[in-house]
């Protein structure tokens, strides 16, 4: 029997098709989603994976059979689905497995206004309902709706132009200087959204891998892996571009390459965009804007925020924590080390495209190169995330805590894993929720100190 606990993750549904799930389960998820969120209408979209159209349609049929009118927006990026959910004020379902290999697919669910549905906000209840409908032989039988439930309708709707117009209404790019931009869509949904969003602007776009192909023939659509940035870096250098942009498979994340072909850290992008959003909020009369950052973004981020007269708020890693804090504090912007960027003006949802527009505007409204522009936001040496396979996550973490906690001037906290900090350095050690891994991030003012800390902690972790 299929184990739905392996399929339904903390924040989404994700697994191999058809081994772990198929259209029958997708149809059941549609019915369960409608029942759990109490939806009379939903919006459904999908990415370019071979299995996405049929899974998306099955979900829509399941939702409609249980009384929901379904707006099908077809091919879209995840943030385009969030736009549809926000602008139409409807719960939504996005069929994508983001950067996972081609055989995977999944569902990202949200309530009306792009409010996330996670393990503690409905996803567990949805899973349990589908489990109750699944027989030991994996046959799924969804009970018929109550006699008074009228089947919903299926309606197609194009939201791409509306999505583009909404984003372009938030960032003025009409007066920037001409820029040469290389964009690597990774055969993902950036190839669908970029041509519409960036059309007509003073940008010379050099397209890499814009063909929608969910088999990812050129490289994985995961820019977090440096190997997948190599082609973009080479192209930026080859054509003398001002900037390179790399989107992941569902185009909700965007990575930035400078004119030298070097990656710009997501923390530097977080600080740059935060500065712009703070300035705009203050111009609109907000005296103390709040910026959210997770605890493994660079110390540069809270430093920049404070320097600009705003309030930084540190939170756990993960979109549910970021979005919850944004809702509670009315924060204008939030950023993560993984290149997820969240905007109050985008229903507190994450959108790589809007972050990219901010970077293009910042670059195009002055004459410096991107590397010169971002230098002010790159104040520390960072290790990047390093994974170690361990048998005893808690034991290895405690060994690290014991080694550092007694040192003079050192502080520790356990907001998310273990964070240890000195005067001009810090590191965080977090357990994976799904694998026997510990994830280490180290940052220090001095590169040599960073390397020394990194190696010392890894020795303790891997002993």
UniProtKB/TrEMBL annotation:
Entry-linked InterPro entries: A-D-PHexomutase_a/b/a-I (IPR005844), A-D-PHexomutase_a/b/a-I/II/III (IPR016055), A-D-PHexomutase_a/b/a-II (IPR005845), A-D-PHexomutase_a/b/a-III (IPR005846), A-D-PHexomutase_C (IPR005843), A-D-PHexomutase_C_sf (IPR036900), Alpha-D-phosphohexomutase_SF (IPR005841)
Superkingdom as given in the UniProt entry: Bacteria
The UniProt record lists the keyword Metal-binding: yes
SUPFAM superfamilies: Phosphoglucomutase, C-terminal domain, Phosphoglucomutase, first 3 domains
Keywords: Isomerase, Magnesium, Metal-binding, Phosphoprotein
Names of required cofactors: Mg(2+)
Domain Alpha-D-phosphohexomutase C-terminal: 385-458
Pfam families per the UniProt record, alphabetical: PGM_PMM_I, PGM_PMM_II, PGM_PMM_III, PGM_PMM_IV
Keyword Cytoplasm part of the UniProt annotation: no
Domain Alpha-D-phosphohexomutase alpha/beta/alpha: from-to ranges: 6-133, 162-261, 271-380
Similarity annotation: Belongs to the phosphohexose mutase family.
Name this protein carries in UniProt: Phosphomannomutase/phosphoglucomutase
Species of the source: Kitasatospora kazusensis
């Amino acid at each position: 029997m299929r184990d739905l606990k392996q399929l339904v993750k903390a924040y989404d549904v994700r697994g191999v098709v058809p081994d772990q799930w198929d259209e029958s389960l997708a149809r059941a998820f549609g019915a369960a989603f409608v029942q759990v969120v109490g939806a009379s209408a939903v919006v459904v979209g999908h990415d370019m994976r071979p299995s996405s159209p049929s899974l998306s349609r099955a979900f829509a049929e399941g939702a409609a059979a249980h009384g929901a009118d379904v707006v099908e927006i077809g091919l879209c990026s995840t943030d385009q689905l969030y736009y549809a959910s926000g602008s139409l004020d409807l719960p939504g379902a996005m069929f994508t497995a983001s950067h996972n290999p081609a055989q995977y697919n999944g569902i990202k669910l949200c309530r009306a206004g792009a409010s996330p549905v996670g393990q503690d906000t409905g996803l567990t209840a949805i899973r349990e309902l589908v489990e109750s409908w699944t027989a030991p032989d994996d046959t799924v039988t969804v009970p018929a709706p109550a006699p008074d439930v009228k089947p919903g309708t299926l309606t197609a709707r194009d939201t791409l132009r509306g999505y583009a117009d909404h984003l372009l209404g938030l960032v003025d790019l009409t007066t920037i200087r001409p820029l040469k931009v290389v964009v690597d869509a990774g055969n993902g949904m950036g190839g669908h959204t970029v041509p519409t969003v960036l059309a007509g602007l003073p940008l010379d776009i050099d397209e890499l891998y814009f063909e929608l192909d969910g088999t990812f023939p050129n490289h994985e659509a995961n820019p977090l892996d440096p190997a997948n940035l190599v082609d973009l870096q080479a192209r930026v250098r080859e054509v003398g571009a001002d900037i390179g942009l790399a989107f992941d498979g569902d185009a909700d994340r965007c990575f930035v390459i400078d004119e030298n072909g070097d990656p710009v850290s997501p923390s530097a992008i977080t600080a740059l965009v935060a500065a712009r959003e703070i300035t705009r909020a203050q111009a609109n009369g907000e005296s103390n804007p709040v910026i959210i950052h997770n605890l493994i973004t660079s110390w540069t981020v809270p430093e920049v925020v404070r320097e600009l007269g705003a309030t930084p708020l540190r939170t756990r890693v993960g979109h549910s924590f970021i979005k919850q804090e944004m809702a509670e504090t009315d924060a204008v912007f939030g950023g993560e080390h993984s290149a997820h960027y969240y905007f109050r003006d985008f229903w507190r949802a994450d959108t790589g495209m809007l972050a990219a527009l901010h970077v293009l505007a910042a670059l195009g409204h002055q004459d410096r190169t991107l590397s010169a522009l971002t230098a002010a936001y790159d104040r520390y040496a960072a290790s990047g995330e390093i994974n170690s396979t361990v048998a005893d996550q808690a034991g290895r973490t405690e060994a690290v805590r014991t080694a550092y906690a007694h040192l003079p001037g050192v502080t520790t906290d356990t907001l998310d894993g273990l964070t240890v900090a000195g005067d001009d350095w810090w590191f965080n050690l977090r357990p994976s929720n799904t694998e026997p891994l510990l994830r280490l991030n180290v940052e220090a003012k001095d590169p040599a100190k960073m390397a020394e800390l990194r190696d010392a902690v890894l020795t303790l972790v891997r002993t």
